[in-house]
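Query structure, 389 tokens:
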């Protein structure tokens, strides 16, 4: 029998509504427990509510693994099976072999990210609770998927906030420094160990398809281009010319390799290592289609004011110089900048430069990055596809 955590009177409502977080102020009593240990959670009246793993020191005291009464191994097996089944349904695995397999709370495995790159899995463990379950998760993963290598890349700021050290190690098999994956029929180099996130920005897959549908014959500017994902789909669509801008030398090198890998004419793709803000300030923008997909400007609540200035500025600079009847895809991956605020920043940028702008469509992360209806905190990516006149 598991140890029990008891909530204060009236504090069970969020769990009855299936929100997976428990804050320290809601807890009436706790037994002695080890960091990250799974406890059963009960209301003050004795009603069973959930099983959650607990942290001794954080205000976010516990994260729910299940609202059922399953045994630990049964629960983990069920959650991983559901995650695998979902990914079989949401994209074509014949043309795409890189995707997110586990998306933390949305897959009922809080604190765990698993991305798949062909036969390589990259795991990111962000919490004490998942740290304790790592070996069981790894064992299940190897039984269910024909993997040749598993890399743990647990280097997030969330992990440090949990009091865990960063870890980067091969847990199984071999993981090459560089491998080639497919996304919707195009090939890309991935460097799981050194690349941003786990290697690629997999959450933008559907936005890259959006660019593919609209880039034919256009002059395209891809800002914060990383290894050139958006640029490749613009070239595949028949763009007149693509310019990619990124501050990272290594990212620019991989963007060049990706262009050659897909046999696109190198003269159709100009790759520039530069700071995007400086580039936008100094250059004219004779582009019919501009992509702004910056890194998260607000990783903490206290970063929001500076982030707002940054998002407004890159959009203002772009809108001011784009030609009449052009297209802009503008994204924010900062959770603390919600859709309403981001739309307001776009409005302010357009108003400042007196451009007529209309929303053609709005987008969130791809379906292999699901969002739990009960956990709105997982809703972080928002993109607006705009017509600029």
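Result returned for the query:
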């Amino acid at each position: 029998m598991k140890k029990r955590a008891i909530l204060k009177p009236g504090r069970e409502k969020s769990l009855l509504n299936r929100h997976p977080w428990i804050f320290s102020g809601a807890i009436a009593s706790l037994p002695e427990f080890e960091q990250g240990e799974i406890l059963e959670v009960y209301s003050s009246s004795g009603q069973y509510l959930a099983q959650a793993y607990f942290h001794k020191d954080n205000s976010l005291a516990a994260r729910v693994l299940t609202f059922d009464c399953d045994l630990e191994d049964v629960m983990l097996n069920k959650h991983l099976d559901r995650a695998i089944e979902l990914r079989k349904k949401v994209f074509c695995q014949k043309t795409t072999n890189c995707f997110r397999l586990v998306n933390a709370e949305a897959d009922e495995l809080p604190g765990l990210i698993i991305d798949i790159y062909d036969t390589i899995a990259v795991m990111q463990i962000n919490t004490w609770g998942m740290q304790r379950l790592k070996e069981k998760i790894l064992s299940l993963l190897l039984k269910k998927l024909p993997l040749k290598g598993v890399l743990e890349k647990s280097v997030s700021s969330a992990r440090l906030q949990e009091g865990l050290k960063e870890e980067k190690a091969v847990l199984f098999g071999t993981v090459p420094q560089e491998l080639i994956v497919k996304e919707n029929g195009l090939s890309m180099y991935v460097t799981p160990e050194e690349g941003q996130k786990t290697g690629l920005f997999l959450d933008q897959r559907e936005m890259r398809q959006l660019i593919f549908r609209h880039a034919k014959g256009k002059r395209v500017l891809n800002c914060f281009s990383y290894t050139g994902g958006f640029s490749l789909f613009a070239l595949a669509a028949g763009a007149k010319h693509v310019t990619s801008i990124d501050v990272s030398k290594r990212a620019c090198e991989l963007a060049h390799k990706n262009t050659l890998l897909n046999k696109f004419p190198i003269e159709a793709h100009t790759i520039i290592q530069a700071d995007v803000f400086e580039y936008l300030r100094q250059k004219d923008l004779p582009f019919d289609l501009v992509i702004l997909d910056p890194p998260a400007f607000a990783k903490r609540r206290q970063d929001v004011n500076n982030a707002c200035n940054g998002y407004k500025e890159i959009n203002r600079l772009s809108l001011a110089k784009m030609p009449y009847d052009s297209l802009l895809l503008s994204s924010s991956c900062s959770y603390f900048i919600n859709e309403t605020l981001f739309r307001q920043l776009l409005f302010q940028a357009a108003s400042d430069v007196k451009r007529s702008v209309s929303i053609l469509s709005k987008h969130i992360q791809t379906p292999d990055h699901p969002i739990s209806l009960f956990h709105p905190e997982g809703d972080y990516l928002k993109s607006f596809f705009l017509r600029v006149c």
